[in-house]
Amino acid sequence: MKIVIAGAYAIGTYLAKLLARDKHDITLISGNSENLEKLSREYDILTMDASPSSIKIQKEAGVEEADLFVAVTPDEHVNLTSCLIAHRLGAKKTVAKVDNPEYVEANNLEEFNAMGIDSIVLPDLLAAKDIVNGLKMSWVRQRWDVHDGALVMLGIKLRSTCTILDKPLKEIAGPEEPYHILAIKRHDETITPHGNSVLKKHDLAYFMTTKNYIPYIRKVVGKEHYVDVKNVMIMGGGSTAVRAVEMLPDYMNVKVIEQDFDRCEYLNEILKEDTLVINGDGRDLSLLTEEGILSTQAFVSLASNAETNILACLTAKEKGVRKTVAMVENEDYYYMAESLDIGTLVNKKAVAASHIYQMMLDANVKNVKFLMSVNADVAEFIPIEGSKITQKKVKDLHLPQGTIIGGLVRNKEGILVSGNTQIEAGDSVVMFCHNVDLKKVENLFL
C-alpha cells in the first residue's frame, strides 16, 4: 500500500515504524527535520522536509495515488486542512488527529465524512477509554470488548493464587471450557499457545471469553480477593485525565493531583462537582498519605514524563494500592515498566496507531487493537458471502502462523470456536495476530 503520513512527531514516527515493518510504501512529510533524518537512516521511508498542507508538496508526494493519507501533526487545523487537500487530490482514505472532543461527536463525524475525511482520531479519548476499562476491573491489566461484551478479551497477570498454572492447555482450556488462551507473555517472549503450552507464575496471559463467564475467569486465576475500585487518585490534570474523569462511572470517587495552580483552577471549573482537585506533587508521600492513599484502590499517573509516572506508581504500590495505571509514551520505558510490574500501561501512540491501522484494510473491520505488550494485533473481521474463511471448518483453514481465532459473534451471541466450527458470512470474527501483517489475514475475509 502507498501511505502518506503528515507529521513526524510522536504518533507519526511510531506509525511510520509500525508500517515500515510490513514493507508498505511510506512517505513522511513534516517540518521536523531532526526526526525525519533519524527515521530515513533507520527505516525504508521516503521523507520530505516541508509543510503537509501545501498542495504542491502533496502532489510531489504522490498523494493522488495514496491508499491512505494520515495527518497527525500537533496542529489539528493543519491536519484537517491537509486531509481535505489530500481527498481532493485523490487519496482513497484520509485520517486526521484532533484535540477538540466536539469533533468526534457522532453528528459531526458525519459532516467530516461528507467533506472527505474518513476518520477522526482523538488520542486522549481513546487512551481514557482504555484507562476506565481497566479501572472497572481491578484484577485485569487490559480489557477489550466485542459487541458490548458478547466476547471479552482479558489480559491478566498470573500470580501464585492461579489454579491453572503448570498444566498443559489441552487439559485446562479444552472445547468444554468457557475460555481460550490467545497469547502468553513470559519475560521478553510472546508465546503463541498450543495444546502442550503451560501457564507459569508471573505470565501475562490473554483470555477470550464471554461476559457471563468473567466471574469464572476471575476465580480460576485466583483474583477473587481483589477489591473493586471505588476510590481513584489521578496524578496529572492534563487532557487525558479530563477525558478519563468524565468517563468514570458514578460509583467511583476521584481525586486529581496537579502541580500547576492555574491548571487546578481550570480543572475546578470544567470537571464535575464531586471531583476533588488538589494542588500538589503526586510523588510526595506525605501528601498522598494526607489525601487518603491508604484507602485508595487505584492510582493513575498521567504526567507528561514517563519516569515520573513509573516512580509515582511504584510509590503508590509501596503504600498498598493494588491497581496502578501509568501513561508511558517512551517505548524503552514501556518495557522497563512491564518488568517492574507497574500494572496497566497506557501508550497513546499505540492506541491511536491501532485506530489508524484499521483504515488500511479493505475488508469489513469493526475494530483493531494493538497490544504493545505482546507485539500483536487483535481485529474484528466480518466475512462476506463466499470468502475463504467460510469455505472450510476452522481446523482445515491453515491460518497464517501466529494467527488464532479468538471467537465470533453471531446474532449478538458470543461463541468460542473449536476446530469443528464453521464460520458464516456476517459473523464478527475476532482474530489475534502476532507478527502477522493484517493484510494477509484480511484476504481470508474477502
TrEMBL record:
This is Trk system potassium uptake protein TrkA. Residues 1-121, 229-351 form the RCK N-terminal domain. InterPro entries: K_uptake_TrkA, NAD(P)-bd_dom_sf, RCK_C, RCK_C_sf, RCK_N, Trk_Ktr_HKT_K-transport. GO terms for cellular component: plasma membrane. GO terms for molecular function: potassium ion transmembrane transporter activity. Keywords: Ion transport, NAD, Potassium, Potassium transport, Transport. It comes from Prevotella bivia DNF00320. It holds the Pfam family TrkA_C. NCBIfam families: PRK09496.2-6 (NF007038), PRK09496.3-2 (NF007039). Residues 141-223, 366-446 form the RCK C-terminal domain.
